[in-house]
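Renewal narrative, Specific Aim 1. Our central claim is that a sequence can be written position by position from structural information alone. The example that follows is taken directly from our test logs and has not been curated for this report. It begins with the structure tokens describing the chain, in the order in which they were read.
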């Protein structure tokens, strides 16, 4: 048997503590599979006195994680702190420059600094592995980097944020509004330290930018991801979606087009019969469309201690077994800078809900504006009767260019007969 692999862990919260629990539970099988023992030697967190429900006796404690990265008696550093800057970045950079491989669950860090980290890792002949950064327990990084490596990927779409999916599911199933469900998602350990990252689509965008890089052999380009979150999705829209045969999901979609890559995160209406429509609570799903393997749907728990620790452990085991491939599928200098297509050029179908004053002639005004912008209607629904009062008017619009759609909505929202802002949700026709 080879020498033990010595591990230092920075961050002992949901994921860090979960990792120690996993190793304690499955140590014998893990040792057998790696051909060597995995031994935790040192840890760092903010509060040394906190009861974490795990035994830390015998482990070297560091108040400063950046110091642990260079001084701990360890072969690899596992970063489970979070945040794209500050201590998490310092810890990882220090480790790489000191010639130590890094395992991280930190998608914000990889989305913002993944290229730089990969370059420093290559220069120092070490690795940065980040399976847990995307879709929790689903081995989607390994799937793209290794399992599907022989394919050309044309599109990735998926539910990449467990917190938002948990909220959307409970809103629909229990007729709740999202504020009342968010607290439960936080208590369950799904949400980020700043939960606005989950709700506003930023966390899903971090993950999407990483997947797009792996899938298309492109440099990570987080800044160009189009992002809309779920704050504006009302219970009324969730219920209209049901009536029209759709479910609302926050999706991340990356797609190759003739003009570059579309990268977008926004609420979508998906057909109720699609695989992704039926992914509920904190479960994530990623659909990969490729030329030879066809469409593959990966699904599983996307957040929480156990699933995330499982993904972190898989990376540690790859290092222990010396099973290392280029971090983004190809060496850094072979990653292309592929342009991102602007959202205005997106073509798709749309759901639009307006609150309109219930009087004659209103619909004709709206239809004229749509016609002027070359936007064609597939169906219309009006609910309720309240002469002179606002009532919901729902339209499903045929495939059109986003810029035309937005221009039409802007004009419609300025009409005297329209109350408040129109709600627009893109309809996404999935293949799985
Ligand atoms: P968490 O529960 O908030 O834990 C963060 C840990 O970092 C805590 O132990 C905290 O110490 C420690 N910490 C904070 N500042 C520190 C500092 N300056 N020096 C040393 N330690 C410091 O977070 P988490 O949910 O485990 O998430 C960790 C990472 O995993 C994040 O990047 C997150 O995005 C990612 N992730 C999380 C999940 C999930 O389901 N939770 C899933 C996938 C990926 P104290 O405990 O002493 O306060
Ligand atoms: N906050 C993230 C989520 C954790 O809800 O999906 C997993 O990355």
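The sequence written for that structure reads:
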């Amino acid at each position: 048997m080879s020498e033990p692999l010595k591990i230092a862990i920075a961050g002992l919260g949901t994921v860090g503590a979960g990792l120690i629990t996993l190793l304690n539970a499955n140590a014998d099988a893990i040792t057998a599979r790696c051909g060597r023992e995995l031994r935790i030697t040192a840890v760092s967190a903010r509060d040394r006195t906190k009861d974490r429900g795990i035994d830390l006796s015998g482990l070297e404690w560091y108040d400063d994680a950046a110091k642990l990265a260079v001084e701990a008696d360890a072969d690899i550093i596992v970063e489970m702190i979070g945040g794209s800057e500050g201590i998490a970045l310092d810890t990882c950079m220090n480790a790489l420059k000191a010639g130590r491989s890094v395992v991280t669950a930190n998608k914000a860090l990889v989305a913002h600094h993944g290229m730089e980290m990969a370059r420093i890792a290559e220069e120092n002949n070490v690795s940065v592995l980040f399976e847990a950064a995307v879709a929790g327990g689903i081995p989607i990084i390994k799937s793209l980097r290794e399992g599907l490596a022989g394919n050309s990927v044309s599109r990735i779409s998926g539910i990449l944020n467990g917190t938002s999916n948990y909220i959307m599911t409970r809103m629909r199933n229990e007729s709740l509004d999202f504020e009342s469900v968010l607290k439960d998602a936080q208590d369950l350990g799904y949400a980020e330290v700043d939960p606005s990252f989950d709700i506003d689509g930023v966390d899903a965008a971090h993950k999407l930018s990483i997947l797009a890089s792996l899938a298309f052999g492109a440099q990570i380009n987080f800044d160009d991801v189009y992002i809309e979150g779920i704050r504006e999705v009302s219970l009324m829209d969730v219920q209209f979606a049901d009536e029209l045969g759709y479910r609302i999901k926050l999706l991340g979609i990356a797609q190759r087009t003739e003009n570059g890559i579309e990268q977008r995160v926004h609420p979508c209406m998906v057909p109720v019969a699609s695989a992704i429509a039926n992914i509920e609570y904190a479960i994530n799903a990623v659909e990969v469309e490729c030329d030879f393997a066809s469409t593959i749907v990966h699904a599983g728990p996307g957040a929480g201690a156990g699933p995330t620790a499982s993904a972190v452990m898989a990376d540690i085991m790859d290092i222990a077994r010396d099973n290392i491939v280029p971090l983004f599928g190809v060496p850094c200098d072979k990653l292309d800078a592929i342009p991102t297509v602007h959202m205005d050029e997106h073509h798709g179908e749309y759901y639009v809900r307006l609150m309109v004053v219930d009087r004659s002639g209103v619909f004709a005004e709206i239809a004229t504006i749509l016609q002027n912008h070359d936007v064609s209607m597939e169906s219309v629904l009006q609910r309720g009767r309240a002469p002179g009062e606002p009532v919901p008017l729902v339209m499903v619009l045929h495939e059109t260019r986003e810029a035309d759609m937005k221009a039409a909505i802007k004009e419609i929202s300025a009409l005297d007969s329209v109350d408040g802002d129109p709600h627009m949700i893109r309809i996404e026709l999935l293949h799985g």
